[in-house]
Fold this protein.
Amino acid sequence: MRKAHVKFGTVLRRGTRGVEWSVTNPSSNWLVRRESEWLGDPALLAECLGSPDGLGSLGPAVWSARQQPVEDLASLRAALEQYCSGTLVAVELPVIRRAFHHASRYELREMLELDRSLAAETALSDFAFASQAVGRAFLHRLRPLRDLRLVRRYELAVQTGQAHGWHTIVYGLVLSIYSIPLRQGLVSYARQTLHGFVEAGGSRLRLPVSDLRALADELLTPIPPVVHRLLEPGIRCLPDRSDAV
């Protein structure tokens, strides 16, 4: 596997579509805080991984996944509804849940199998490059915690090509490390990601702020019940392809 060496502030290009992603510069916006300060605040760190600044850079993959162009509020709504049903609810939230539980039980082998299995998820094909770039960048920011064996060994697996470093797995790992309630983390991830996508699309299309707020509220309304169902006992959160890895 080709390793992606990502520097903050770098614009990344993939494929022939000319799709671009940018990895957040840590000196921008509220990330201007000293690394030691935000690493000491678990809620802030989890929000960082799921913030518009970090995951909003995956927005172009949402637009590129649609055959129809995103050119107005209606097509933006359609693109984000497609992302919510086909990617966020079906894959990303379940992956975060599994990564959280694997990390909580120190199941490194199972976490690596989950990481590698995501390459077979068609719903993530348009997001793979950006997701792994964001995940690796934030995994690098966890280096002050390398005294934790799980963080050190997962980072080593990513560096040696044994894992990809998907941002959802890193997010679940962070929630576990800091004992952040899973329900809170899942809802926060959905909220921050969707707000980032709505903001990115609205800025690109120059849509009224009132329309964007209404769209974000509309998309987020079903999320808490979805998370509740996902956390019910006995719910299988993602097809297990570990045997095929």
